[in-house]
Amino acid sequence: MSRNSEVITVVFPIYNKQKTVKSSLISVLDQTVKPYELIVVDDGSTDNSLSIAESVLSAASIRYQIVRQRNSGVAVARNKGVELSSTDIIAFLDADDEWDHDFIRKMSSLVEKYPYGVLYSCSHRIRNSYGVRDKVSNVFTELEDGVINSFFYVYSKTSLVNSSKVLVRKDVFDLVGGFPEGVSINEDVFLWIQLSLAGPVVYRQEDLVTVNQFEDSSRIGRRGKVPYIIEYYSGRKSEVSDQLGLKDLIWRICYSHVFQSFALEGKRNAWAIVRKSFLIFPFRSLFFIVLFFVPSGISRYLFLLRKRVGFSA
Questions:
Q1: How many CB atoms lie within 10 A of CB 260?
Q2: Residue-wise pLDDT tens digits, 159-191
Q3: In the chain, what is the straight-line distance between the N-terminal and C-terminal CA atoms, in Å?
Q4: Which domains are assigned to the chain?
């Protein structure tokens, strides 16, 4: 282990987040236990995100660096940050989310208690137009701190990991190839799957992160694209069958994206996902055909109703 094995590098990608980048960065600077370093990677922002970040960090008492690159995607930005890091443990935070003050301290204690883990996560709360809601704990009240023995099963039911609440081991991150570049949807989910296949996933049952889910240019820009998980496994069906629970996770991803596409993007975009889904789930995907006979207005209404009911449940 290197001399920096007990400390953390924070990788912070930015792309056109001028409304939220300040509060996100302040949540890093206000940690009760400071990170060893903060690496900000601006992915070619065209708004004031970078200047806001520079202003916030100008008075920072922690070690940091700001890297600028042409717009290449969040996967490239995160990979660049990891490449420049000098610690064994990496944390990621998106520029529209926020950590609680004790995030690093409590997640570091999880690493110390379970040093053999490769991916560490916690519960989080969601803030959107409907309010604020605990995301994981209300769904899986039986989850306890420690190693997740049925990672794919639990992940298929709830958002167990995401790109603002995980810590990863740098050597294993490098071993599995990091985030797949050139991908705009599910690049993070693909990495979590690869890491979980490489070693234990460790979880803390406590909300330590607020994930903001509001429409912006980056979210809208992902519409109409086939999620990478579906694209990847549509040509590797045997890999799905070999891993217990992985099939259920991929089906959940197919279902949620197809339903969302029907509701918000139209039948043509939905068909691109359905076509790939048939290659993985030839029988289950027959269900999607029914959706083509549902009027678009009804699809949208049902989608928004499901989202609202699910949020308030």
A1: 18
A2: 899 999 999 999 999 999 999 999 989 999 999
A3: 45
A4: 8-214 (3.90.550.10), 223-312 (no CATH)
